[in-house]
Amino acid sequence: MKKFLFFLWMTLFSSQIIFGAEYKTSASSVLDNAKRYSHENIIDGNISTCWSEGGKGIGKGEWVQIDFGIEKDLYYLGIIPGYSKYNDKVGEVWFKNPRLKKAKLEFSDHSILEVEFVDKQQMQFFEINKKTRFVKLIIEDVYPTLKWEDTSISEILPVFENIKEMQAELNFNYQMISDKTNEFYALLKIQAPYEENQDRDPVNISLVIDRSGSMQDGDKMKFAREAAKLIVGALGGKDILSIVGYDDKIDTILNPIEVSNNNKNEIIKKIDELYPRNSTNIMGGIIRAVELIKQKQGSGKKISKFILLLSDGLANEGITNPDEMKKIVLENKEQDDISVSTFGLGTDYSEDVLLSLAEASLGKYYFIKNPREIFMYFHKELTNILKSVASDIKVVVEEEENCKISSVYGYQMKNKQFEMPVISQGQQKLVLFQVKKTGNGSMSIKGKIKFYNPISKQNEELSYSAFIQPEKGNQDILNTMIQPEVLRILSANNLVVTIKDYSEGKEKKAIERLEQHIKKLVNENKYLKSSVLAQEIEILKSILEDMKKSGGDSGVLIKQTKKHANDVLKSE
Length: 572
What we know:
It is a single chain. By secondary structure, the chain is of the alpha+beta class. The chain has eleven helices and 27 strands. The chain has four domains: 17-159, Sandwich (Jelly Rolls); 167-197 and 399-475, Sandwich (Immunoglobulin-like), CATH 2.60.40.10; 203-386, von Willebrand factor, type A domain (Rossmann fold), CATH 3.40.50; 483-570, no CATH class. The chain has helices at 2-12, 220-234, 264-271, 282-295, 322-336, 351-360, 374-386, 483-503, 507-528, 531-549, 555-570; strands at 24-27, 51-52, 63-80, 86-87, 91-92, 99-107, 112-116, 124-143, 152-153, 155-159, 167-172, 174-176, 183-191, 203-210, 240-246, 250-258, 304-311, 338-345, 365-368, 388-401, 403-408, 417-420, 423-424, 428-437, 443-453, 458-468, 477-478. The longest helix is centred in the C-terminal third of the chain and has 22 residues, at 507-528. The protein is globular and about 75 Å long. The two termini are 21 Å apart. Mean pLDDT is 88; it is low at 1-21.
């Protein structure tokens, strides 16, 4: 399972992270444990690792460098300016190490850019706009530490695309198509800008924490409390927070309050009151959270409302019917625009229920194998919320000439449109359409993406279109630029069916299906030679290997596989 987990890490950061063997890192010094705190960690795509300097004091003047090998157009640089990790022995380590406050960025043309950081546990982007062979970060000043004096950096992300506004493009998976071909695909690519939103809208978040008896196992509640404190630390301004604890009873741990530096310590004390008790009333917790969010709407033109639900078990109190649960969440989304993001902990909960709640409300679903990872996934979702560059997203199909979209993978299309969850800074979303020919002559699809832009504070639209003229004969020429992603999404859709069979006890059927699918992808990639497809093939081989040797202990495998398939379908 280790190989599968590694690839899950890679997909966790979407298309943003570079995993380039051609890049080399170096540093002025490294803390005693050179492997654990290596400068190589700054480009490993893992926010729980870091480079820690090994100089005297707080590290002023120490540096870390990334060499690109050749001169490249560097447009942005993303930096997580501290040690973004939860450690079970010492708790949250962010404030227990110095964090970057000021730094100098040096480039191969000898120019220097001075940058300043806010003391928040998230990636912060800086506009660079220059050609350079390397970037060197030199520590100038830090935020004070609560314990150690080793200034650390979790991640540095070079961005080689100059994207300052939302972009969308639609392409068919054929460059040339025969007049005898009746079914094909179109891939919609939506690219978010890397521009930093200096004046983001406030958010209204309600944390809903499972406090059933099983949460005492393996220090689950302790890790949940620490993850909740991460949320508190990242909020401010006019952001509103409320907290609900649920078991067979529903308790308001924190009434809705605008979070400020003046009350964060009091909120943390409230979080420490959470402790495990009895059974699991998931919907009771969600309903209370909705009431709290509506109780204090806050001020500002646009306030995004989210419920973050953590559960480690099956709903066994209150409303437990999955269809009824989904209906309530959907109504809350339609009436009050409240999204529910769900975090399933361990193997005893129903991933299908938590996934359906998230999908119905345009939230996100996370599988957390180990309680120590709660912190990491809360961090990921919080970053997604606070770094949003598009919300209230509707993809509308306006024209279909001589063809028709028969299905949209990963989304439910109704009346020629579907909705998408928020898109955050730098994210790329891919949506695959299955298209069927309906007439003779040229074929085209046109549409618009409507969304709220929190940077401009305006409702905006993007147009997209694709056109192709069928040619007489039998020759189809693939569009090799997008075909690997087309196959990857189709593979994820196949994996949904495969893991369903496997979870229902049809192991032999599932294994045979997956073996055949892997062979097909391997053959396809002999021509395409795609690293994207090669990576997906390795993931599928790892899943197949685990299917064959699971011996009935398949809870983790099923949940991880369903999560991977969902992540590919939704470009997470």
